[in-house]
Amino acid sequence: MRGERLNQSILKLAIPNIVSNITVPLLGLVDMMLMGHLDSVAYIGAIGLGGTIFSVLYSIFSFMRAGTTGFTAQAYGGQDHQEISYAFYRSICIALIATLIVLGLQRPIEWIAMQLLNGSPEVLGYTSEYYRVRIWAAPAVLSLYTFNGWYIGMQNTTIPMVIAILINVVNIGLSVLFVNVFHLGVTGVALGTVIAQYVGLLTAVVFMLAKYRRYLVKVEKRILLQADKLRRFFKVNTDFMIRSILLVLTIAFFTNQSAKLGDDILAVNMILMQFFYIFSYFTDGFAYAGEALVGRFVGAKDHVHLKKTVKYLLLWGLGLSVPFTLLYWAFPETFIHLISDRPEVALQARPYYLYMVLIPVITFAAFIWDGIYIGATAARGIRNTMLIASVVVFLPAWYFLMPAYGNHGLWIAFLLFMIARGVSMSLMAKKSIFAA
After folding, report:
1. With 60 as the cut, is the pLDDT of residue 405 above it?
2. Where are the domains of the chain?
3. What's residue 27's pLDDT?
4. How confident is the model at residue 135 (pLDDT cuts 50, 70, 90)?
5. Of 19, 156, 183, 423, which sits 20 to 30 A from 344 (CA to CA)?
6. How would you write the chain as a 3-class SS string?
7. Model confidence at 98: pLDDT above 70
8. Does residue 142 carry a pLDDT above 90?
9. pLDDT-derived band at 262, boundaries 50, 70, 90
């Protein structure tokens, strides 16, 4: 495959992911805008804290998408049709088990979250209201991890794009309706999310039946429970799970520490984090392309194209970071006012514009390497690099910098965490990716 064709393959996989991912931060922005135009900043904080609860909760199970993509892509590259089918079956079984665990433990999860989160009584009250509605989206969310991961592994990012767009369009429409027309506040935002997720799951099932029915072979218990396959499945996914938990716990800790600085700083940091998410979702388009292509070339044992793919993906990530840096530098106040028209929020955000500007160039490498490691199912490497970034870099930086510099110290610690992820994965790539 020539360089031009490889870049075309990257773009063919990346662009649908970017299109679908754009709708995710758009949803976050709309939710923030709906809450930001109500009569209290507590609504913004509640959406931020409520979102953090579900980010942490679902991070425990997000390995299902990553692991399913890696295993499916490698089976696709090796033309192993049986394993393509059973990669889906094993993952959907885990999704069903995870659903029972989450719904069965929903009240203890809420209690623990309320104890750990730092926020005013008003913020925590709205957060609890949001949680008790949104938790019922869990079955759809967890099942969609399996469907989307499998579709990406099959080198098809168009179906996940359609599903994501549909989910977020429905979600935005319902949230606006429930908040602005029925005046349901945070409950309306949560209810819109629940309904939209089930619309997405139904769509995923329809696509499976229409396009991939031939892979829905009769399940044989002997193959499903094959010892060596299960051992590798759980080993890889356990490491992916540890990585995901550490990542989201770091972001949750950032949110927790933001709340300690007061409702206004919490609102400011939640707004600024939207720009982190916006860039991450663009870059993740190429990371997901990396998952599909790297998995495919690892499965096919094609080391030449594997190395070219890694090189091109990193160049795409670097190229993407430049325009985002310029946009964030040129129009910071425009972006802030788009989310909230409260003067005190915009005023308090001004000292922290620099961190928003630095996000793209500092974070792109970590996002791209994530996709590469997942496609190669290099789970041990991705776990170890996350341990280094979160425990060895972020926590000490927070400990020493936040007491002296307040919110500036918190932001510097977070950016150092992202730098450490990119650097450590770059250094471990030879052993983790290319030695496979």
Report:
1. yes
2. 3-432
3. 64
4. very high
5. 183
6. CCHHHHHHHHHHHHHHHHHHHHHHHHHHHHHHHHHHCCCCCHHHHHHHHHHHHHHHHHHCCCHHHHHHHHHHHHHHHCCCHHHHHHHHHHHHHHHHHHHHHHHHCHHHHHHHHHHHCCCCHHHHHHHHHHHHHHHHHHHHHHHHHHHHHHHHHCCCCHHHHHHHHHHHHHHHHHHHHHHHHCCCHHHHHHHHHHHHHHHHHHHHHHHHHHHCHHHCCCCCHHHHCCHHHHHHHHHHHHHHHHHHHHHHHHHHHHHHHHHHCCHHHHHHHHHHHHHHHHHHHHHHHHHHHHHHHHHHHHHCCCHHHHHHHHHHHHHHHHHHHHHHHHHHHHCHHHHHHHHCCCHHHHHHHHHHHHHHHHHHHHHHHHHHHHHHHHHCCCHHHHHHHHHHHHHHHHHHHHHHHHHHHCHHHHHHHHHHHHHHHHHHHHHHHHHHCCCC
7. yes
8. yes
9. confident
Residues of the chain with pLDDT > 70, as a percent, come to 95
